[in-house]
Each structure stands twice: as C-alpha cells, then as structure tokens.
From TrEMBL:
The keyword Transferase applies. Keywords: Amino-acid biosynthesis, Aminotransferase, Branched-chain amino acid biosynthesis, Pyridoxal phosphate, Transferase. It is an enzyme of class 2 (transferase). Its EC number is 2.6.1.42. This is Branched-chain-amino-acid aminotransferase. One of its GO terms (molecular function) is branched-chain-amino-acid transaminase activity. PANTHER family: AMINO ACID AMINOTRANSFERASE (PTHR42825), BRANCHED-CHAIN-AMINO-ACID AMINOTRANSFERASE (PTHR42825:SF29). It holds the Pfam family Aminotran_4. Pathway: Amino-acid biosynthesis; L-isoleucine biosynthesis; L-isoleucine from 2-oxobutanoate: step 4/4; Amino-acid biosynthesis; L-valine biosynthesis; L-valine from pyruvate: step 4/4; Amino-acid biosynthesis; L-leucine biosynthesis; L-leucine from 3-methyl-2-oxobutanoate: step 4/4.
Length: 355
C-alpha cells in the first residue's frame, strides 16, 4: 500500500520513484496549483505546544463552519522552494528564515506556532515525500506552502481554541505571465495595502484578499500588478502585492525599509546581501514616488516571483520606462541568487539545506 502511515517517521523517502514524473509536462508549468502526493499536518490546542505531525495523502481538510480562520481570518502562510540540483539532489533555500517569520507572525496573530525545528522538519518531509514533483534543474521548483490557521470553533471575536499547521506543495515556474519577462506596474493611489500598527509586516492571510480589487483593476488595464504607496501621505513606495521592490541608480540600490507595513521578504534580504557582496551600495530607507523617474532599473523580489525586472511603472498617468535584459543589475543578482539556490554557485553563507 502507498498509505503514508506505513512509512517510518520521520519520512525520508517517497514511495514513488522519480521515474513516475516522466509524464509531467514541465514546460507548461506556470504558477497554478498542481496537486502533489502528500501534505504534512500537525495540530494543537490553544494552551498546548505543537507535538507530532505526520504526512498524509494530499486532499481536502474538514473544518468547522465556526473555524477561527473562516470567520475572522486568523491565519498565516509562508512560501519557500525546493530546487533540483544538476546531480538530481534537492536543496531548500533558507527554510529557517521562513520558520522564524512564521513565529513572529503567530505572535502578532495570537496563535501558537511550531518551533523552528518542527517547521523545518515538516517542510523537509513534505519536499521529500513529493520529490517526484520537483522539476528538473532549470525547469522550475517545488513551491512549499506552510499554513498556520485557527481551525477551532469561535463565535465571539477571540483566538481559536485549536490550530492546524499544514504544508502542501506544488511544482511552479514563472509567477507572472509577461511574454517579455518584464513587469508593467501601476502605482495604486486609491487602495492601501497596509497601515501603521496593522499587519503589513507579517504574512497573515488577511493581507492578501484585500489586494485583489487593485490587482484585478490593474490587470484589466494591461498591467502586471500594482505598486502600493504609504497609507498616510500616499508618497512613499511600499511593495507590490506579491513582492518587494528595488530601484537601481548608478551603483546604488534602494529598497523601502521594513518598518512595519512592508513584508520582510527572504528573497529581499538575500538580494540585499548578494548586492553588497558584489560591491553595490544598498540603502533601506523611505523612497519618495518622485524617485521612480530617476531610476535606471527597477526590479521586484519574492519567493514566488524570484528576481523580476520591471519594464515600466505608470504613476499618475505618466509611464516611466526602465532598462531590462542582458547586462542589467537585475540579471546579475538574479543569476547569482539562482546559482546558489540550485547549487551551481558555491553557497558560502550556508543558505541552502540539502535534503
Ligand atoms: C511568495 O512569494 O511566496 C508569496 O507568498 C506571495 C504569494 C502572493 C504567492
């Protein structure tokens, strides 16, 4: 039987062989859900610690209609990727950072959270059990989506009495569908993403559905996504709905400082370190929207997005264009990052975890 309960715990192998992935059309991957074989589930009550989770076959979960996550949005998610090396081995990229970010978010959302070790072990087990779904080198990656949600029933507004930590996976390639590879962003002046004292700096599920209105409007006008401004003065740059933003001018790279309303991206901080190591000056600070006109290049970073060049930004009906393609800073940082993630460039800092 392929029942995962018959596997020794912790699971270090998959009952499927890599050969069983030969029918998957890797070239048609985008960023849509392709259900895989297993997910990891671990539960705990509000006054307990998470104890032992386990893999089960990927499938629907049962929830009380009164679950905290359904009624009041008490939930967090994470995103990280497993990459296949040229020799067939698998690498995770900075899973401890995602684990720590989930712990910070859980504190903000009044939830218990798995320990860093539990988080990383769950992610490893999920990646290994679904290893036949990790695309060949150069064809994408296996996106791992850890969730922490209040699944116990509540009626009045209060923390849920039970929590579920779950990890599922899907093979992915490019997040955006742009043919040229470069994004065309629209500066959003009506809707805000986050406000001071809110939850913009943690990865709560409730930050994302409110962005749909602006994204849908921008897409209907031919843009890839929107760039948000601060909610007080509507002047300084914040982030794009699904990623952080960087401006390049001369040898200086600038990105909005993470002061509570901006998600502290793992790719964001990795790119900052790579850029500094390569001799760029990197500034984390408040960036006025007028500075968009002075930049030579703009690019976005995120786990799903990777490092993506921005071809244009439309701000108050003025379209500003940027350099993209060969020889750009964006390309240089992208290639270095992907090299480390896929094991073709030496990982001197210890960001990757071989599984
Ligand atoms: C990620 O980049 O992993 C995210 O969580 C963004 C999401 C909108 C896909």
């Amino acid at each position: 039987s392929r029942a995962v309960s018959s596997m020794p715990e912790p699971c270090r192998s998959s009952p499927f062989s890599d050969d069983e992935s030969r029918d998957i059309d890797w070239d048609s991957l985008g960023f849509g859900l392709l259900p895989t074989d297993y997910m990891y589930v671990m539960k705990c009550s509000e006054d307990e610690n998470f104890e032992r989770g386990q893999l089960s076959r990927y499938g629907n979960i049962e929830l009380s209609p009164a679950a905290g996550v359904l009624n009041y949005g008490q939930g967090l998610f994470e995103g990280l990727k497993a990459y296949r090396k040229e020799d067939g081995g698998l690498l995770l990229f900075r899973p401890h950072d995602n684990a720590l970010r989930m712990r910070t978010g859980a504190e903000r959302m009044c939830m218990p959270s798995p320990s860093v070790e539990q988080f990383v072990d769950a992610v490893k087990q999920t990646a290994i059990a679904n290893r036949r779904w990790v695309p060949p080198s150069g064809k994408g990656s296996l996106y791992l989506r850890p969730l922490l949600v209040g699944t116990g029933p509540v009626l009045g507004l209060a923390p849920a009495p039970e929590y579920t930590f779950l990890v599922y996976a899907s093979p992915v390639r490019n997040y955006f569908k742009e043919d040229s590879g470069a994004l065309n962003l629209y500066v959003e002046t009506k809707f805000d993403r986050a406000s001071r004292g809110g939850t913009g700096g943690v990865k709560t599920i409730s930050n994302y559905a409110p962005a749909l209105k602006a994204i849908t409007r921008a897409k209907s006008r031919g843009f890839s996504d929107v760039l948000y401004l601060d909610s007080v003065n509507k002047r300084t740059l914040e982030e794009v709905s699904s990623c952080n933003i960087f401006l390049v001018k001369g040898n200086v790279i600038s990105t909005p400082a993470t002061s509570g309303t901006i998600l502290p991206g793992v790719t964001r901080k990795s790119v900052i370190d790579i850029a500094r190591n390569r001799g760029y000056e990197v500034e984390e600070r408040a960036i006025d929207m007028d500075e968009l006109s002075d930049a030579r290049e703009v690019f976005c970073t995120g786990t799903a997005v990777g490092v993506a060049p921005v071809g244009s930004i439309t701000c108050l009906d003025k379209r500003i264009e940027y350099q993209t393609g060969a020889g750009t800073t964006c390309q240089e940082l992208y290639s270095t990052l992907v090299g480390i993630q896929t094991g073709t460039t030496e990982d001197k800092i210890g960001w990757t975890v071989e599984i």
